[in-house]
Design a protein that fits this description.
Layout lengths: L8 E5 L1 H4 L3 H8 L3 H10 L11 H8 L9 E7 L3 H13 L6 E4 L9 H4 L3 E4 L2 H9 L4 E4 L13 E6 L9 H9 L1 H10 L11 H13 L5 E8 L6 H11 L5 E4 L6 H7 L3 E4 L2 H7 L5 E3 L10
Parallel strand pairs: 1-2, 1-4, 2-3, 4-5, 6-7, 6-9, 7-8, 9-10
Antiparallel strand pairs: 5-10
Helix pairs in contact: 2-3, 3-5, 8-9, 12-13
């Protein structure tokens, strides 16, 4: 039997995040809707190639079996319903199980996240991601220029998270941005025993923790915290995770070192960060997404 919907991990994803539709998207962005639909119909029998988030989605779906659905993936797209036919066919050809899809023909689709019960929204559209984050959903803009995920860990879903403004709130980051590193370190040392408030991706980490606990013989989850924090500010981050009763498998306190090469060694299927410079650098090595919230982003 299937789990109840609120016990499943529900991932809403745009077509460009899941598949490589960059050539088609150039026509879509030009405003020629008829030409775009014509091209998609022309290529209806031509499965799209994997996109940046493909590996993440494929591995998450491996947690399902013939008796239990632990993960559901829903297409949430600005595409038109006609183009949706190719997306579903591409899913079938690539062994990505898709049953549900919402196609809004150019309009923002984020308002459908709530009725879908989504735990994560991945899109290549920056505006949709900002609106989803503002509405309280974990969301990231997929950098379509990222490299594809590696193949060295076929039996592990590997996900890396930044800390402040992603897993945690941007409370401490605000101190750093306004008063500098020394004030930040003192602030975090003083509050070491006080858990950080939740950030936008804490619900996703909780859902992944629950999914891992449910277990499956064929697939595991390995998570990493990859943060610019260093000692003594590391302690508050660790204690916060302990307070949440959530374990991460690896923690990297890099003290400002570039994250990209560390991520290259970890080989995540996806990495989430709120700062564009970190995401851009990471995208040279791994699939990456920008979490456009917090003080480091306009309007954050």
């Amino acid at each position: 039997m299937s789990l109840f919907p609120d016990e499943r991990l529900v991932v809403a994803i745009s077509s460009r995040a899941l598949f490589n539709f960059e050539e088609e998207n150039r026509i879509f962005e030009s405003g020629d809707a008829k030409a775009y639909m014509a091209l998609q119909l022309q290529r209806l029998e031509q499965p799209a190639k994997p996109g940046i988030a493909f590996s993440l989605i494929k591995k998450l779906l491996a947690f399902n079996d013939t008796t239990t659905q632990r993960v559901e993936v829903v297409i949430l797209s600005r595409n038109d319903p006609v183009s949706g036919m190719r997306i579903f066919r591409s899913g079938l050809a690539n062994q990505i199980h898709l049953e549900r899809g919402v196609f809004t023909q150019g309009r923002s689709p984020f308002r459908y996240l709530r009725p879908l019960g989504a735990h994560l929204f991945l899109s290549a559209n920056a505006e949709d991601v900002r609106e989803a984050l503002a509405a309280g959903f974990p969301a990231a803009r997929v950098l379509v220029e990222s490299v594809l995920a590696g193949t060295n860990y076929p039996d592990e879903v590997r996900i890396a998270f930044d800390g402040d403004a992603v897993l945690f709130s941007d409370e401490a980051e605000r101190v750093f941005q306004k008063e500098g590193l020394s004030a930040f370190q003192q602030h975090e040392l003083h509050k070491a025993l006080q858990p950080l408030p939740e950030g936008p991706f804490k619900p996703l980490l909780t859902a992944l923790h629950r999914l891992q606990a449910a277990g499956t013989a064929g697939m595991k989850i390995r998570t990493a915290l990859v943060t610019a924090r260093s000692a003594p500010a590391h302690e508050r981050a660790i204690r916060t995770l302990m307070q949440w009763d959530i374990r991460v498998d690896e923690a990297m306190f890099l003290g400002g070192l570039p994250k990209g090469e560390f991520l290259r060694e970890f080989e995540p299927d996806f990495f989430f960060d709120d700062q564009t410079r970190h995401v851009d650098q990471a995208a040279r090595h791994v699939p990456a997404g920008h979490v456009a919230g917090g003080i480091t982003n306009p309007g954050g």
